[in-house]
Amino acid sequence: MDSPAQPQKGQIIDRLGLAMRASHFLVAVFVAAALVFAAIGAAMGDTFFLRLATEALIFAGLALSVDILLGYTGLLSLGQALYFGLGAYVSALVLKEVPSFWIAMAAVLAVSLVVGTVAGLIANRVRGVYFALVTFGLAQVAARAIYNTRSLGASDGLIGVPIVPVNLGFGTVMSSSPAGFFIFTLGFIVVLYLISAYILDTPFGRILVALRANERRVPFLGYSTRNARVGAYVLAAVVAALSGALYPMLRGFVSPELLFFSTSGNAVITVVTGGVGTLVGALYGGVILTVLKSVIGSMTEHHLIVIGLMFMAVVIFLPKGLMGLIRPPIERMLGGGAR
């Protein structure tokens, strides 16, 4: 009886790599759909929906940072709003003094690296639910401190953030341009996605996946679990802060509410809705949640009840989120139908 054919070395499918390629394909579809939306919005002279879509992309960047921790490392952060709000406040403060996009982004990057490293060393001293509680506590402390600081606008926040020209070398985009800033934000968030995907597709990313699977075995492979966890935490902090830095450019103000638990909670809902551990799910989930909040919010003031029910339904009936439905067929297509 003939023995079953053994797969050749070159035919072995890297499941993680295949899943990442499927996510890239879905990002390409997302970008194409967004560009069509921008073209239609610009042709119609729309402002409201383009601004709303830009805000959805910005909060999708926050959700992306949550997915880096939850989806790849298994760490549930209930305080990612800390870095989103930090990025927004640092950006607003810099822009009010020096209206330069790149200087503001450089300042946000530097501050988020420092704060993310310090907070990461603190939060990663504990595990499980205690990690979630520590991140929640850190965000609450920061939110309350900003809320009570008059020089930062206290409960009113910072207003009067000027319109910013974004010099891209080949042209300039004004933050006051609905279609132009939407396309720029789309490109910015996609770049954050690609950088995150590249990092997570390296051996470092494989270590994070191993941490999620069985943290106790990782040291036997010669890797430091603490360094890997802190590295993932800092990466997520930077992604959240850079996304938040765009908020005052869009709205012209920042508020302490950006650091509240509701912001972190919405990001977690976004990730679960889109699909945990997919990265691209954060983009689709961000759009879905923003559209639902806008549409349902215009119909009833109790829109949070509807969103809560939707979240429970997703957890029960779609535990892998939206990507759990649409990504497997794409993986089979890209893998030549391999099972």
Overview of the structural elements:
By secondary structure, this protein is an all-alpha fold. The chain has one domain: ABC transporter involved in vitamin B12 uptake, BtuC (Orthogonal Bundle), CATH 1.10.3470. It has helices spanning 15-44, 48-73, 81-97, 101-123, 129-147, 178-200, 203-214, 225-244, 247-251, 261-274, 280-299, 303-317, 323-334, and strands at 158-159, 165-167, 172-174, 253-254. The strands form two sheets. Strands 1-4 form a two-stranded antiparallel sheet. It has a two-stranded antiparallel ribbon with strand order 2-3. Strand 2 and strand 3 form a beta hairpin. Helix 3 (81-97) packs parallel to helix 5 and helix 10 packs across helix 11 (280-299). The model is unreliable at 1-13 (pLDDT under 50).
